[in-house]
């Protein structure tokens, strides 16, 4: 309820907040350098790459904790991806750059516009996909790893969220809702997992192979 109320309040002031971030970026050259780098923490290959590294470490060194962390991180990000795409298609909010900082909501009627010309749609701003991905990963790491690892992950996720404003791709309310959903999903996954991983050879009459079984 608190997050919903905060998001609703931010929506009413998103336009001036966005313009402030845009002006700050234009006035500081270092932001133009740092901002796209910070956004990478929410791109597909970076967070999923981190999850994959944990899984590889777990398999290579027989480290069940690392393997669990990698699988839980991947699970949290998959759930986050499903949730964020459903919401994007339902709300149909325009991105800030579309109308030069004017906020517009179109609802589901712009559902298919993102598939017309390829790439991401100008009408799928709410909530932020980069932010929900970054915070779902950061939450799993914070719940499973040493405090400094969690603090670092949250700091990077926060920078990723802010970079979505300085990159002209999102409103502040998009970022706040994405962060809240990412934290909630990450905690839900960690607190409710019951996973078993089994890797064993399978031999048949005509063929042989390896079976990997992951159960939840």
Structure description:
It contains seven helices and two strands, in the order αααααααββ. With 216 residues, it is mostly helical. The longest helix has 28 residues, at 64-91. The protein is elongated, with a radius of gyration of 20 Å. The two termini are 30 Å apart.
Task: List its traits.
216 residues, mainly alpha, two-stranded antiparallel ribbon
DSSP, total strands: 2
**Based on the structure, what is the oligomeric state of the protein chains?**
single chain
Termini distance?
30 Å
Spans with pLDDT under 50 lasting ≥5 residues?
A: none
The secondary-structure class comes to mainly alpha
Which strand order do you get reading across the main beta sheet? 1-2
User: Helix and strand succession?
Assistant: HHHHHHHEE
Most strands sheet? 2 strands, antiparallel
Coarse shape: elongated
Please give the share of residues in helix. 55-70%
- Rg on CA atoms, Å: 20 Å
As a percent range, the share of strand residues is: 5-15%
- Average pLDDT taken over every residue: 91
* Tally of helical segments: 7
């Amino acid at each position: 309820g608190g997050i919903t109320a905060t998001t609703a309040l931010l929506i009413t002031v998103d336009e001036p907040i966005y313009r402030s971030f845009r002006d700050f970026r234009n006035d500081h050259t270092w932001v133009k350098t740092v901002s796209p780098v910070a956004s990478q923490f929410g791109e597909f290959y970076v967070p999923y790459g981190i999850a994959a590294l944990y899984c590889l470490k777990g398999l290579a060194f027989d480290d069940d904790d690392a393997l669990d962390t990698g699988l839980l991180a991947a699970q949290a990000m998959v759930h986050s991806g499903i949730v964020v795409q459903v919401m994007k298609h339902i709300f149909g909010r325009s991105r800030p750059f579309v109308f030069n900082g004017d906020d517009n909501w179109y609802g589901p009627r712009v559902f298919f516009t993102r598939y017309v010309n390829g790439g991401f749609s100008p009408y799928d701003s709410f909530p932020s996909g980069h932010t929900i991905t970054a915070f779902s990963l950061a939450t799993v790491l914070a719940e499973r790893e040493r405090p400094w690892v969690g603090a670092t992950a949250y700091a990077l996720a926060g920078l990723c969220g802010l970079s979505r404003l300085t990159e002209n791709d999102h409103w502040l309310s998009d970022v706040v809702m994405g962060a809240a959903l990412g934290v909630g999903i990450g905690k839900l996954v960690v607190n409710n997992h019951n996973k078993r991983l089994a890797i064993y050879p399978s031999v048949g009459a005509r063929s042989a192979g390896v079976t990997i079984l992951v159960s939840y």
